[in-house]
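In response to a reviewer's request, we include the raw inputs and outputs for one of the modeled complexes. The six entities were modeled together in a single run.
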Amino acid sequence: MTEKANTCSSKEIAAFQGLFALARDGRHYSSIKVQDIASAAGVGKGTLYEYFSSKEEIISRAVFYALEQLLGRLEQSMQEMTTLRCILEHFFDGLNDERVLPFAALSELIASVPLEQRKFLEEHSPSDKERTYRRLQQAEQQLLSAGRRTGEIDPALTDRFCEYVILSALFGQTASCRISRAKASDPAQRRMAVEMICRALRPRDNRG
Amino acid sequence: MTEKANTCSSKEIAAFQGLFALARDGRHYSSIKVQDIASAAGVGKGTLYEYFSSKEEIISRAVFYALEQLLGRLEQSMQEMTTLRCILEHFFDGLNDERVLPFAALSELIASVPLEQRKFLEEHSPSDKERTYRRLQQAEQQLLSAGRRTGEIDPALTDRFCEYVILSALFGQTASCRISRAKASDPAQRRMAVEMICRALRPRDNRG
Amino acid sequence: MTEKANTCSSKEIAAFQGLFALARDGRHYSSIKVQDIASAAGVGKGTLYEYFSSKEEIISRAVFYALEQLLGRLEQSMQEMTTLRCILEHFFDGLNDERVLPFAALSELIASVPLEQRKFLEEHSPSDKERTYRRLQQAEQQLLSAGRRTGEIDPALTDRFCEYVILSALFGQTASCRISRAKASDPAQRRMAVEMICRALRPRDNRG
Amino acid sequence: MTEKANTCSSKEIAAFQGLFALARDGRHYSSIKVQDIASAAGVGKGTLYEYFSSKEEIISRAVFYALEQLLGRLEQSMQEMTTLRCILEHFFDGLNDERVLPFAALSELIASVPLEQRKFLEEHSPSDKERTYRRLQQAEQQLLSAGRRTGEIDPALTDRFCEYVILSALFGQTASCRISRAKASDPAQRRMAVEMICRALRPRDNRG
DNA sequence: TATGAATGAGGGTTCATTCAT
DNA sequence: GATGAATGAACCCTCATTCAT
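The model returned the following structure tokens for the whole complex.
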């Protein structure tokens, strides 16, 4: 399609995966050195600078890359499933495959990228950013439509509140893992996230 | 009073408040320098090292300090209120007073403290940590008891799930603000947090 | 007087002298590391950055500092002496004292500072630059006046040509040392410079 | 011809010319990257290493190449002209053709090559060096002979002083351009160089 | 006690050099 | 032979920490 601009060279993807692996191991942005990323990606430190202009850009691009991966996963879930709960379950189950969807890594990364940095992230490739955000909002709308169609979402709830619940579930998961020391890859964690979303959004007399 | 260990000198509190002010301004842990904390606290850089052994300790102690403040606030809310919703509303409303309860700052700080660092945080004053965690769990138990007593919490829900929901609400708030660019101090944000918790925990036929 | 702005802290002067020492040893700008300057100045590397914002600034400021020193020396020579030859001899003799007048170092430095860099040098503190340049031109005018008054300078010669001769003598000295491997501190070198200037500028029937 | 050792492959000459072009643009040695030379020469970066063992060698050989070119030019001038002034004028005029005789570039290069480097330059191909230096001295002797024969050079002057004057004129030109921001290719600059040499070397009663 | 000038270990980045294609 | 992607040593600069005042 026209999304070709989003394709990354194999070296870039190696860098992203290396970064995700580090993030998955609980390494924090501020403690990740360029040398670490290079080692994790299996390339020389200098090689990274052939593909990225700075450490900052590596992180920024990796965040967007992961987000795109996640969106792809979510869109696929929405094509195959019809109910909100099934979509979410399918989506979260897919997060198991760390190679494809390093969600914990993304969440960790986004949490760890300083605010000041995010400015750069936004300025860096505004068109990429815009495209991703649009895709994100479309997916959200589609998800809420599905939930409302099946009666899983209380019609009285605003889009904003629904969004708030979903984001809290996604990122709260990371927080929860931190406090209670559970592994983000623990299926129980993901089940709780789905459950929380469904319960919080369900109509008052929801029986399901 | 065996809690004496918890009292802090005015200089220490100045350091904490300075750090909270920085965190509230959106400054990220990794971009906060010791000089920044000293300036924000209105003391010399060297003075900080009279009270703390390292930057790491400043952050760690500040996190615990903020947590203790929050717990005090929550305990107070639970004494004055009876229903889960009222307790939460009272608690979250108190978060307005940034001087007393820099919640956004805490959330931001905890999110920004690297995992590796948290090890230090745990090893540093294990007794302090234990005491705070015990107090945290007591408060949680008390909160859930209140909710179950009033029928606001579905009896079928496990403690673990309830905790998950509350943590997601607390920390998801930060995430939500980041994504949707809302201000954490926005009352609407806090209302949504309370609403989400209540809806997610309510029994299936909950009418309130 | 009002020239107070030009005073430098002792650490700054130490840095300049360290740099001059390195330049005097024949070290070239591009091979001088910040660590070298720090070592030569007898301070820590980090200390330099308390007084200068970059290596670039160290060099720039050092060049101007040396230029000011030289100008002071020249102005003094012009007060004490009357004939062009005597002024030049007195001036060049003073260049012996490397601590006070590191001329070879200046010449070497100016030669070694890349053109691109000189842009910075000019943009950095334009007022300092302007003041120094004005002082330089005044000294030149005074020198030429002296030479013309005493008949040592051919009245037919333009200011521009006179300037060209003097600059060639000053900087050619460095070049000459490089090619013939003489030491810049060799008195014979300085005698030749004076001789060359006087001969090139003298009237056609000059007998002196 | 026993001078066969001096012939360079087309790729080598391309590298030299590329370097000269960069130097002519005012680029300084320390800011010229191997990639720049390769680009300016129109070859791949790796290709340079087929013909030179290091960046250092490229510079060294280029300096000698330019020197040889200049010497050829000077020898030709001495064959066609008889008076010192005519030789110099003819010689300097030829410097206009930047392709053949990039004098400004040479001067700039020699000035910019660090002393440490010059050691390498001397050790690198001692035989080449010796041959060039001998040729240089022969040319100098021939030039001085011409000047003395025509009475343009004061018989009292030593060879060393004459050499000093000529070198100062050559390299002072570069210095002069730097200070007064004139272009080295400006004919006025070259006229002043000839004038300075002739005036400085002329006998006391010289009328020409 | 309070300070900030001094420090140097460590990080991000550059670029000369290599080598598989 | 010609190339440029990959490399890592080495540099400039930052900033947590120390210590003389």
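As requested, we also summarize the result in words. The radius of gyration of chain A is 18 Å. Residues 55-80 of chain A form the longest helix (26 residues).
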